[in-house]
Each structure stands twice: as C-alpha cells, then as structure tokens.
Amino acid sequence: MGISHSSPQPPNVKAPMMPMPSKIMICSDADISLESSFDLSGEAKCLITPGSTTSEAIDLACHQLTKVKVPIVIPTETVYGLAASAIDSNAVSLIFKIKGRPADNPLIVHVSSHDMLHSILPPSYTLSNAYEKLINSFWPGPLTLLFPVDSAKIPPIVTAGQPTVAIRMPSHSVARAVIALSRTPLAAPSANSSGKPSPTKVEHVWRDLGETGKVSLILDGGACDVGVESTVVDGLHEDGRIRVLRPGGVTVEEIERVVGENLVEEEKAPQVLVHRRDYQDEAMEQQPTTPGMKYLHYSPSVPVILLLTSDVAPMPSSTNASGLKDVLSETLDEPTASEGRRKLGIMLLSDSPLVSQVKAIDNKFDFIVYSLGPKDSPVTTAQRIFDGLLTLELQGVEMIFVEGIAEKQEGLAVMNRLRKAAREVKWIKRPTLGTRDLTQMRTLSAIIFKWGVQRKTDRVVEHRRASSTVVRNDAETSIVEINDQDDAEDDLGSLMKLTEKIVGLIFSLDPATAPGPVHQSHITQIIVTRHITPLLKACVLLACGDDSGEKVVQWRNIIDRLVSLLPVPQSLASIGSINSQLNFPPYNAACGKLLTKQLLSPGGVRGLCSSVLGEGLAGEAAPLQKLESIARILSTTPSGMNIQTYYSLIIPRILAVLSPPEEEMVQTPAPESHKRAAALTVSRMLATKPIVTSRVLSGGLLQPFAAPDTTSTAKQLSATHSLHTLQELLAHGDPTPTLPKHLLGPILPAVYALLAQLDSTRTADPALKELVKGLLRVWAGTIDSQETISGWWKVLQSGGGWGGREDVTWLVVGDNVRVQVTSTVLPSLSLLTPTERKALDEADDEADILNLRPNPHHLVAFLKAIGRKDVNSALLVRALDEYQVLKATDENPLKTMLHLKLILEMVDQLGSAVLSNPEHILSFVSHALQPDNEEKPQAGPAISNPTNIVASLESLFVVEPNASPNVNHEDEDSDDESDTDLIETALNLLLAVLEANEKLTSINTPLLQLVESDVERLTNHVSTTVRELAREARLVMTARNASTSTTAPQVSEGPADARQLAQDQYQHALKLLQDPILPVRAHGLVLLKNLVLAAKAPTPGAKSTVDPALIPAILSIFLQLVQEDDSYIFLNAVQGLVAMADTIGQEILKGLIDVYAGGVLGGSIDSVMSKAEMDRRVRVGEALGQFIRKCGDTLSAHVNILVPSMFGVVRSRHLPTALRTSALALLAQCAEVSPIAMLPWSADLCSGVTDLVQLEGVSSRPADMQPRRNASSGEEDSADVNENDVLVGPKPLEEMDIQPLSQDPKLAPLRRSALHFISVLLRSLITNEHDRGSASTSLVPSLNVSNFRTSRTSAQTSASSIREEYMPADVVRHMRLVLGYARVTDVDDVVRVMAGEVLELLSGSGLSSLE
Q1: How far is CA 492 from CA 578, 589, 1123, in A?
Q2: What is the torsion angle, in degrees rounded to the nearest 10, for the CA atoms of residue 1132, residue 1136, residue 1137 and residue 1143?
Q3: Alpha-carbon distance 637 to 725, whole Å?
Q4: Cβ atoms 561, 510 nearer than 8 A
C-alpha cells in the first residue's frame, strides 16, 4: 500500500500557464481601506492606494462591470464569485450561460452599504428587530438574508421569478471595494461550473473557467477564509420564526445567540429552524428562493463516498457498521493484475482513528490522504473541504472517501455540502480503547509528570531562588545541588521542551498564532483531569522568565487556554495551590492576576464558593472561617481597578448565587453554604463600603421598586425576581440590622404598597404575599426603634408608596409584579356629590371609600401583627401631634382624615399595646376635651370621622344640599358634630390609657386631674355616646383613686410571696388563653382551675395563697368559655367548673343559671330568640348537667337556686320548645342524682308538670268525642279537659328537629320530657319508700321542712304522713286523671306509652292509696 499526503498548494499565476483572454490580477488587502464597522446608516467609504496593482485591478473590474457589462470573478470570504450587475438582466443572463446554471436557481445579490441595501428594497419595507440584530452582528460577513423584492429594481432573472430576493454584504475587502466603487449591487454565485465544488482559491477558478476563457477577468484575493458559502436566512414569515434555508459560514448557534439577546421583558426569542433538520418544505425545494436547495451541488468529476461514524450522527437501526477495509471491498471491484494498484483519495481529520485503519489496509490501494484539520475545529474543516475535493480530483484519484464530522457549529454547513456531493454514505466502525490501554496511559502520564515535569520544575525553582538569594527553610531544600548558571539554563530549556510536547498533546501550537483547538482524546482528558496543576505550574515558571519576548507571550497564551479548559472551581483551586507552592514574589504576582481574571469571569463567584466550600448539601454547615475568607476575597478591589467598576461587576454575580434559577428544570439552585457566603459578602460590603454598595444595589436589585421615569420608553422590570433574592439575602445573611436597613429601608414604602395591593387582590399568589410579609416583618423586627419609627412614618407620608406620585401603582399578574404608571384619577375631596355623601355616611369603619393611601386599617393591622409596642406607641403619639397641626391649619382635609383614621384604628386594633407612654396621649385628651369657650385655632371645623367628613366640607358639594331629599343637611350642626366626634375619640383614648396603665391615677399624674374636671362636665353632654363614655371614664378614675388611697403597703412574707406566684400564674394563664392553639388554651384553663382549688385554706385559720379577688375574675372566664362554640374548649371549661364545684359551687351555679335562665324569670328576655342565643343556653344547660352530677348528695345545698329557675324556663311559653325541654331534662337529672334534695319540691313539680301535659296535650279522638260542657254547671269534665273546645290536629313529630327555634308548645318532645321527669321523680319516691321501711329515722332529717307543702313539727312520722307531706292526695288524683286521659287520647304514640308507665308507677308505689 502506498500512502501520500496532499496539502493545499500556493496559486500558480504565471503568465505562461494562463492563456488569454482570461486575465488574473492580484489584489492586496493592504492597499484597501474600508470603514472598520458597519451600522444601519450611511454609505461605505472605500480608499485604495493610488498607483498600486490593486487600484489598477479594481478600476478594470469596475469598467468591465459597468461599461462592458460582462461578468468577472471576484474573491469573497466564502468562495470565489462570478459577479455581474444585479440590476442588468443581460449581464445576469451571462452568469447563467457561463456556469450552465438552471434558470430556476436564483442568485444572491451583494451590497456594500446600508444605503445600497435600501436602494433596491421596496420603499415601504422596514427591517424587523431580528434582522437588525443579525445585520449588526454579522454584516459584513457570510450571512444572506431574504427580503421582499422590488421587481422594478431587481430583474426577475435574479430571483427566478420569486417574490423574495437574497442579499448579503461580503466582508472581503476586494469584493466590497468593487461593489462600492462600481456603485452597483452585484449578483455573484460561486465561480464554477454548475454542480461542481465551489472554488476557494484562484487556481480552482482558473482550471474551471479561466483556461477556457469563459471569463475576461479574475481578481486574485488569496484563499477564502470561510471556505463554504454563506448562511441563508428567511425571517419574513408571520410566525416570527427564523428559518435557516442553507447553513453556511455563520453558525446556527451564533444566530440563536444573537436573536436571543437584549430582549425586553416578556419578549421571547424567535425560534431558529434549520431546513431538512427541523422542518421540510417540498414546495420550496421545487421552486427555491435561494441557491443550493434543488440541484446536485459540490460534486467533483469522481465519485465521493461519505464515511460516517456513530459519534458523528445516530446510525440507523437497519444499518451495520464495518471497518474501512470492508467498506473498500464493498465499494470497489477487486483490481486485476493488469490494472495494478488503484489510486484513492481520502479526506480525514488529523486526529481521526481512521488513520490507523488506513495504514492497516494491504497494498492493493494507493491512498492520497488530505487532512481536514483536527476534530474539534470545524472551522478548519470548512476552510478545506472544497479545496480537498478539487485537489484530489486534480491528482487523478479514482474515488474520494470523506470522513464526516459532527453537525454542530460550522460542521452543519460542511455536512450539508458533503451530503449533496456524496454518491453514497457508508458507516464505519471506530476502533475503541480497552480498560488495559487506558490504565497504561494513566500510568505513563503519571511517570512523565512525577519524574519529568515536577522534577524539572523543582530544579528551575531552586535555581531562581538561589540566584535571588532567597533564604529558605530546611523543608524547601533543593532536590539537587545547584552548581552553576549553565545547569540552570539547561534545566529551563529541558523543562520548556518537555512542556511544549505535553501541551502539544492537548492542542496544536503555532508560535505565530494563539493555541489551536483542543484535541478531544483520552490523553487530553487524562492530563486535564489528573495533571493540570503541575502542568500549569511549569507554564507559570516559563511565562515568568527573564525573556520578555514572543516566547513569554506564547506561554501566557497557553496558560490562558489551559485555564479555560477547566471549570472555574478547579482553575481557582489549581492556581491557588500553585501560588502557595511557589511562594515567590514574581510567581505570586502572576498567580494573583490569574486568580483575579478567573474571579471576574461570569462563573467566578460560584467557582470561588465551590473551590472553598465544595458542592455542599443543603443542610451542610460551612465553617465561619471559610465564609469569612470568601467575603474578604470578594470584598477586596483588585489592584488597578476602580471600586465602583469592580462592585458594579461583582455584586450582580454575588446576587446571582442567591437568586432562584430562572429555568428550574435546567439550572440547579446554589447550595446553602454558597448562599450563606454570598449573603455574608454583601453584608460585609454594606458594612465597610455602604455608599458604593447601596448605589450598585439601587441600580440593580432595588431598581424594580423605583417609580418609573415617564420620559423613558424602557419597560419596567418585574420585581418578583428581586423579592426572591432579597428573601434569600435576609435568610442567609448576618442576624444584624445591616442588611434589612440598607436593602429594605430605601424601598420600604414601595414594598408595603405591594403588600397592600396583594392583600386587596383576591387572585394574588399566596406564596408571593407571604414572601412580602416576611420581608417587612424582618425589617420591622430587627431595626432599632428610631429607624423603625422613621420608616413607618415615611410609609405614612408616602401615600401610595412613591411620595406624591399618585399615578404610580403596582401591577399584579399571578406571581409577576411590577410598578406601572396609571392614568386612573383617584377620588378627590374637592368633588362630593350627594350620592357620595350618603355613601360616606353609611360607610362602616373599615370602608375606604376615600381611597386613603396607605389604608389606615390595613397599616394598623400589620403593625399589630408585628407587635413592636414601643414603635406603635411612638407612632400614635406622632400621629396625634401631626393631626393637631393639620387640624389647626386645615390645608389638606384628606391628609387630616388619614391621620385621624390612623389614630382611631390604632386605638381600636392595638388597644393597650400602644398606650405604654400616657403623657402625650393625656395631653391630646386634655386638649380635645377643653370647653368651647377656651381659645382654639381659628380654623375650619376638624374632620374627625369618615361618616361625618362631608359635614365640614359643605362648600365642596357639586350639587346643592337641598337638591336631593336623601341628603341630611344640617349645616348649623356641622361644627358640633365634628367636635363630638373628636370628644368621643379622646374619651376612647382615655379609657384605653387607663386600661393599659393600671397604676395611672390623678395622684401620681397631675395631668389626669385636669382631665377629670373635663370628664365630669361631659357626663351631662347632649350626646348619649359622649355621656356614656364620660361616665365610664369617671367611674374608672374614681375607683382607681380610691384603690390607690386605701392600699396599704404589704410586707414581703411567705404568704405574700405565694400570692405573688399565684398572681404570676394568673397572668400566665391569661396569655395562654389568647393562644390560637387549642391545647395551649386548654392548659391555661387548667392553671386557672388549679388557682381556684388552691384558694381554699389548707387548715382552718390559715391564709389562702391566692388573692380572693382573683376568684370572681377566674369564674367569669370559665363562664365565658363554657359558651364557646368550639367543643374542645367547651369540654375543658366544663371540666374546670365541675372540678371547682367543691370550692366555689354556689358561685358557679349562680353564674351558669344567670346565663341559662337569664331574663326568663324577670320577663325581660326577647320574645324572639335567635338560634345562636338558644344554642348558647343549651350548651350552658349541658354544663349545668355536668355540675349537677358532680354535686351528687350535696345538691341539697343548691336546689333552692336550681328548681325555681329551671321550672321558670319550663313555664315560659314564649321560649323555644327545645329550651323548655332542656330545662325539664335538667330537673329530671336533679331527681335522679339526689332524690332527697328534690323531696321538698316534689308535689309542686308533679302538679305543675301534670298541668303542662294537660295544657299542651294534643287529642286524637273523633270530633263527637270532644269534651262536653256540663249543662248544669257549665264546666268541662276535668278528666277530658283540653285547652280548646275543638280538636287540635296532630303535629309533626320531627318539627322540633327541622325548626329548633319553634315555640309551638304542642310538640310531642315537650310532653315526653314532662312525663320522663314525673317518671324519674316517682321512681325516686319509690326508692325512698323502701329505704324508709328499713330505717327508724326520718327519710329526710336534714331537709328544711319549711319548704314542704304541709309542715310537720315532729321529726319522726309515720309512712302515710310522710307521703302526704311530699305527695298530697289531690296531686296524686289529678295526676291519675290527666295521665289516664293522655294514655288514651294523645296523638303521639310515645306519649301514650309513657303516660301508661307513669300510671303503673303510681299504682305500684302505694301512692294511689292516698286517693
């Protein structure tokens, strides 16, 4: 086998080889001066050196184009082009003729300036945003854009009759000079016969068109830089997508990057689609709008076979890969002996593994190998692809094999050309390295670096330190002794040669240029991942040598390239390690520059955190020393750099560590340790350089909170991202006021305005709302009192959040919020219609009909949630002072109203929490309560309440007061109303101050004495509200003064200490009762119960450890909580009352009965009871039942309270039947628990309940069996008596369940409960009868017989006489008659059965004998 290599040859343009008529003229870039940049305005300026060959050549070219009007060949950066005037159809037709080009294959028009571009476009056309970006980035250059065609300017032959024209601006100086000086756009396809490879050198043109004289002039501009045609882009579709019709010199990745830059908020980057990769358009391929889409292109005269491997493109599942030898056998016939060796061309990557397969093939073939450059340099492959095809064709090969490359960057254009040029595609199996091979490579590389690079590096370091007379420790002793200067030079040279060889394995080295592309090989990976630190160390030594020439510059470029291969954390770690190892000033300076450069790179901050802290887990704690080290490094300004510039660059990158990922599915959030380091750094910057840091933060992080500039057209940024970043900063920063002060202080009004907006927006994101609340809580909870007060005052004075800018507000859309300028005009007090006045009069306290900003109710509610009593108290005092000033001047009624509303809301919502400093408040109260004849400011009436605001603004009405009958216009009383409102506010403040300050009296506070006299006067005020408030205040102050004057000093003894403990326990229990968590509240009840149980003295005569004054308060708490709707608290309260029955049973019973039967006995209860009221009484009835069970036999002590109250409820027909039934059940429970206690009341109760059954009975007898009146006496039969003479129809039994508030006494459950009570009571009497028979003593020796129906003087009585005492015969007879009637006639089956059971009890008890 023979293998030879073909390389690009310099053009041979000697006259004898180039016969006429074609003429070649050489042009030099050095002779041409063009403007360095291109913008979207102006004409290109072109200057050529007079008298030069270039000037002569371009003059001739312009003459041929404009005068002779024939095509010529010009060089471009892509390929050589056959150019003619694009506006001359005859000249263009010659292009088609010379090339043999089909007429339906359109041409590309080339221009030299923006003016020339617009001169050939339709006048109405304007460039799109995407086109402007592409033109600014890639023109002049290898990018063609499709535009609408103006057929009056561009003949149809150029566009093949299509409605679009392809235009580009070449970057080659010769091409632009020809276009600019000829002043005509040029149509210029590639200068080759149609279908052939495009020429990239002048000899390619000569062999195809020049030798045959097809063209008159060829301008030689050297080899083309790009090597493939331009990229063609279509951006004219309505969907906004960018379509790449033909990949070329500008990569798709570059286009995507450019069109995605500088997007305004919410604007999406247009999608970039590649024809035949991302979409297919068969119709366009049949009628193409750009060249290179329809016909076979780029094919030499010999067959081309494309070789693909699996790492270039995915191999079809139906295809099997073979070795190169097998591919040759399949493709070529076996050569005969007479044919000899066959010559084949093969185009391979310089680092391709196929090279080894070529060498392994036998001697049947002679290969001419053409190098396409390294694998990772597709731009090199693009430059060489056409030259390789044409060169191998010239050398007479039988077939050309071309290795494919990855279709990315320039590789997409290369593969586009190869697929069109190739006759066939073959898949090649790539050789692979085994585990043993890789192990050997690692071992050899370790030996080289251990005994080669590191040893030589140490020797060079020792030489240089010795020459600088640096004193070293024993630990740094040189590996070898230093003999002389010659050894140092030898070691340095040896290190340089070895390092160059190792670096050459990673990328190609060219002394004249920067390092080439990286070789993607196993050895490169091994060196970069395992030995990069010693390699960099050697390069640093070589770059810091005494030589300051090109070698040093080259080594510095190598260092930069090596560092760029590493992730930033690894590069920082390696450079830091080298810096500590060398520890020598020149090297330290070099390493410092490298570290600074890495730190200032886009990933520098994250890299530093990863290098120092690692990629720690979320919960992993970072050592403070490392965090401080990162903060110190990032806070230090690099030498030679302005602090403002540095902070402006580094702070956004620090904040990026804290910011949430914008694409959560793509980006990974930074570890917690990194966030702590970033937050600590910002905190340190604010502490050390507050002005600069705050300025940078205001221009970036805090910018979305500023009021928009109405003169700017820029769209306001969203604040959501900044809010999340602020949250992370505060969550991970120092627990000091520094961060909240500088971050939230400047934007506090805007942030609070956002919270108010979110709270008023029902569709607002709850998570965002909690985030904003959390930020404000952090600020309010960490800043000192004075700054907090100033901050909230600024919020109050800022209105809606931006001072006087009432046109600025927040726009909330989901979780996206931003500041906007609105044209909405807020309500003004200058215009009040009668309808608006009525709405104001009817508005409740929380209504904000005047749209006060900030809303006082919302602001005070938030202040209450924060709980800073000192701040709230000071704010109230400040608001009071400001209100008095505003009221006196009366210049701004709305502002006056805002401060008054704030005062009222603070008193109403915060209560005693804001009244810890009473002096200022009492001063305001004294001022407000002054009599009318005292001196007051000569101003209009004060505005004190939203409901009366119009009373002081009569002059501002749009409609006269008498124009509407709905308007209450009492102008003469407006001043009195305003003063009354002010007095009410002052009295409420006074009561709140007295409540908050228990020791405040007129004795220790002289100012209160003045207030007392005014309060006394106001007790006779004409206003009912003022009178009640004044009398309440007078009562409190009188009691307070009396208590203070009679209190004797206590001696601190044991019982006193115990009482103090009890007092503390009482206060603690009250706090627990206010907790929202139910078990905590229940524990508060337990503490109160224990206090009551401890109130009983342990021994007679001993003092109780609990102040007796606490007992009524505790009982009141339990009585309130027993009425709670929550069953958990209710049960705990009941249990507490039951447990305290032995201690304060009488008080408990009275309290429960007051609630249960309150208003019943006195007849003051409303005739109609609400369901809530009835439920409350029923629940208290349940508590009564528990108390009754607890009392047991001791119920006798309480029965005189219970029975009258319960029976009073039973007799009240205006009460709901359900409540009356409940009272009967409680009476039955008393009889069941303690029969002895109920004996004195048995006869009365049985008689009364029997009457109830008789009165409320419902008969089911036929009408002819209705009770008849006695003709002789006119009276009804007592046994058949009913309430009415007519039959009462049956009532639905379930009515009480459906209508629990029903007062219908005919409901069956009432009669059932009555019979149940009689049954329980009779059973108790039977039990007592049996007990009496076995005892010689009285059945009820302990009862007060005065309560019986028939009093007895003897304690010992007979059985019959006892029965007569608690159940007289007339009662028994009456019961038998009524119940007998009910058993027969009642409509309810259950009632009839229960009546029969009671009758049986009467018969079997012996009581029937009393009849």
Answers
A1: 18, 20, 96
A2: 180
A3: 24
A4: no
Give which of 193, 160, 3, 6 is closest to 82, Cα–Cα. 193
Interval 79-134: pLDDT, tens: 999 999 999 999 999 999 999 999 888 999 999 999 999 999 999 999 999 999 99
Contact of 790 with 744, CB cutoff 8 Å: no
Single-letter amino acid code for the residue at 620: E
The tokens for 505 are 């394995």
In whole angstroms, give the CA distance from residue 736 to residue 279: 58
Contact assessment for residue 546 and residue 458, using Cβ atoms and an 8 Å cutoff: no
CA separation for the pair 1161, 1147 (Å, rounded):
19
Of 772, 752, 777, 763, nearest to 853 (Cα)? 752
Ordered strands of the 143-148 beta sheet: 23-26, 217-220, 72-74, 81-85, 186-187, 108-110, 164-168, 143-148, 231-234, 242-246, 272-274
pLDDT at position 57:
95
More confident residue, 209 or 1298: 209
Can you tell me the distance from the alpha carbon of 94 to that of 412, in angstroms, rounded to the nearest whole number?
A: 32
Provide the whole-model pTM. 0.47
Q: Would you state the pLDDT for residue 21?
A: 63
Q: DSSP string spanning 745-804? A: TTTHHHHHHHHHHHHT-TTS-HHHHHHHHHHHHHHHHHS-HHHHHHHHHHHHHTTTTSTT
Q: 614: how many CB neighbours lie within 10 A of its CB? A: 15
Compute the distance between CA of residue 1232 and CA of residue 1226 in angstroms, rounded to an integer: 10
Please tell me the distance from the alpha carbon of residue 39 to that of residue 378, in angstroms, as a whole number. 29
Task: Please provide the DSSP assignment of 404-416 as one string.
Answer: ---SSTTHHHHHH
- State the Cα–Cα distance between residues 1313 and 531, nearest whole angstrom: 98
Task: Judge whether 771 and 727 are in contact, CB under 8 Å.
Answer: yes
Closest CA to 388 of 410, 413, 367, 368: 368
Q: How far apart are CA 707 and CA 799, in angstroms?
A: 13
Peptide bond into 854 cis (omega under 30): yes
The conformation of residue 825, written as its DSSP 8-state character, comes to: P
* Sequence-separated (6 or more) residues with CB below 8 Å from residue 1132: 1081, 1082, 1085, 1086, 1121
Specify the pLDDT at position 1139: 75
CB 54 within 8 A of CB 31: yes
Q: What is the pLDDT of residues 402-411, one digit of tens each?
A: 999 988 899 9
Cβ-proximal residues to 582 (8 Å cutoff; 6+ apart), any chain:
461, 537, 540, 541, 588, 591
- Given CA atoms 576, 580, 585, 586 in this order, what sign does their dihedral have? negative
DSSP sequence for 1127-1145: HHHHHHHHHHHHHTHHHHH
The residues facing 425 across adjacent strands are: 306
The helix (run of H) or strand (run of E) holding residue 90 is helix 89-99
Gyration radius of the chain over CA positions: 52
Q: How many CA atoms does the CB half-sphere of 976 hold within 13 Å?
A: 8
CA distances to 193, 284, 394 from 418, rounded to whole Å, are 18, 21, 18
Q: Under the phi-then-psi rule, with left for phi > 0, alpha for psi from -120 to 50, and beta for the rest, what region is 187?
A: beta
Q: Is the peptide bond before 704 cis (omega within 30 degrees of 0)?
A: no
Decide if 264 contacts 157 (C-beta within 8 A): no
Q: Tokens 């390619």 identify what position? A: 204
Q: Which residue type is seen at 2?
A: G
**Cβ pair 1168, 1302 in contact under 8 A:** no
Residue pointed to by tokens 């991202």? 721
363 C-beta neighbours (distance < 10 Å), count: 8
Among 130-144, 223-237, 556-570, whose mean pLDDT is lowest? Answer: 556-570
